Structures are given as structure tokens and as C-alpha cells.
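README: folding subset

This subset contains proteins for which both the sequence and a predicted C-alpha cell string are available. Records are stored as plain text. Below is the entry for Lipoprotein (126 residues), shown exactly as it appears on disk.
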Amino acid sequence: MSKYPLASLAIALLLTGCASNPSPSTDPYPGSGGLFLGTPSQADVQSGRSVFTPGKIDFAKVGVTSKQDVVKTLGPPAWWQTKKDGTSTMGYDFVEVSGFMGMRKVVRASFTFNTNLVLAAIDKPQ
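--- output ---
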């Protein structure tokens, strides 16, 4: 039996609390950066990476998908922001091609994550 049972319990609780919060090394985009209201590059459009289709972001499930999963699937975000409370948001700019003369418009999607880097909300293009 420990000579200081309360101290041992306090240390165990602190270590457990640290394990539930992601470390900066596991967050693929900590802090804030990027270009809000950017435009996809011509290379991204031509490669199809930034062309929006209705099923493009259907892989993302609230409460299941991680921030790393979103980056792995969609690539680097156009912008990202981390709030003081530890929640974060990443935004993606896509090009949507309309039927009328192949007109293109920029549409945006944003993904909000809780402090454990798990998807909490999605704002999809309409």
C-alpha cells in the first residue's frame, strides 16, 4: 500500500486527464492558418482534387471521423482555426461545375472538431 494514497490517486487522475486531450503532435493542423475565402488552384481543379461532387464529403461522420481522417481523405485544408477552448475548424474550397456552359463556382465546406479531434459538425455546400 502506498504511503501517500491521495497523492497517488491525484497523479493517476492527472495522467488520465492528459490522455484524453490530444497532443499538438497528433493534430495535423494546430493553431490557425491558411487563406480564408481562397480559390482552388488550377492544378487542384484539373486533378479533380478540388472538384465538388455530392458524395465528396459523405465519408465524414459526426462523432466518428477524426481530424486526421479528414486531412487524409481531402488533403490540406484551405484554412484552419483553433479556439481557446480547444475546439477547431478546418475549411475546404471546392469548385462546382454547373450545367450551364460549364460555369464554375467556388463552394465551401467546413469541419468542426471537439477537443479530442473528433468531428462535431459539418457545414456542407448546398
